[in-house]
Amino acid sequence: MNRAAMYFFEKVSYPSQWEELADEALIEQYQQTENQLIICFLMNRHKAPIVAISFRFLRNKEAVEDFVHDLFLRLVDKLKQAEIRKFSAFLSTMVKNKHKDDLGKHDVRMNYEIRVQKSKDPFYKNNWEFTIDNPLSEERLKEYYNQGVLSRMEYNCLKDRSQGMKPAEIAKNLEPQILGLFPQEGQDTCEEFIKLKKKKVFGALERSYRKMKETLGEDFSRYFEV
Q1: Are 96 and 146 in contact (CB under 8 A)?
Q2: How far is the C-alpha of 137 from the C-alpha of 159, rounded, in Å?
Q3: Which tens digit of pLDDT belongs to each residue from 144-182?
Q4: Are the CB atoms for 54 and 67 separated by under 8 Å?
Q5: Which of 201, 213, 225, 222 is nearest to 123 (CA)?
Q6: pLDDT tens profile 75-106
Q7: Is this model's pTM higher than 0.85 or not?
Q8: Distance of CA 130 to the CA centre of its chain
Q9: What number of CA atoms fall less than 13 Å from residue 216's CA on the CB side?
Q10: How far is CA 25 from the centre of its chain?
Q11: Whole-angstrom Cα distance, residue 105 to residue 74?
Q12: How far apart are alpha carbons 158 and 30 in whole angstroms?
């Protein structure tokens, strides 16, 4: 956990006099001293809306921790000279806009990764029959999973992929929990969540290819086109 996230998610002692100061007074003090602990205190004071908005976009504590660090760095810079009348409104707007910017960048990156994946996908020209003697049969993949070579997520994604399913179909087919996602009721059908499932599938397939290459050694090229 990075330093900003630690101050945000864990109980930390701050100077008691800060509790009595308004946000704007603390910002003025920060502009005079550049004491970055003040930023941590302000973020902690407004933790509830930051977490609520962030989980709506990210649905993952580790991702929220990374976002908190990025938000901290942005506030360190923004608050040095900014004239802010109401910090709570300023912060909520900044959090929402940053998530939307990140989502836009993610879409661009996702489209690029899909193009790259298609050009490198080991199953792109898959004409094999997956028999019991084939290391990629469901039974053998299950053995690799039981041996700890593949994680549950990697096993399920590779199993579906070896049966000819495309990554987007795998993302639609698998339960969110298998991909390490735990959406609230109704969120599993929203566009952002579907994109996140696809990203999880691409990541799991990439890791499973790498692990299978390490496990199969020279035989890897017999079963994967690279």
Answers
A1: no
A2: 8
A3: 888 888 999 999 998 888 777 888 889 888 988 988 888
A4: yes
A5: 225
A6: 998 898 878 889 999 998 988 888 887 776 65
A7: no
A8: 33
A9: 19
A10: 35
A11: 17
A12: 51
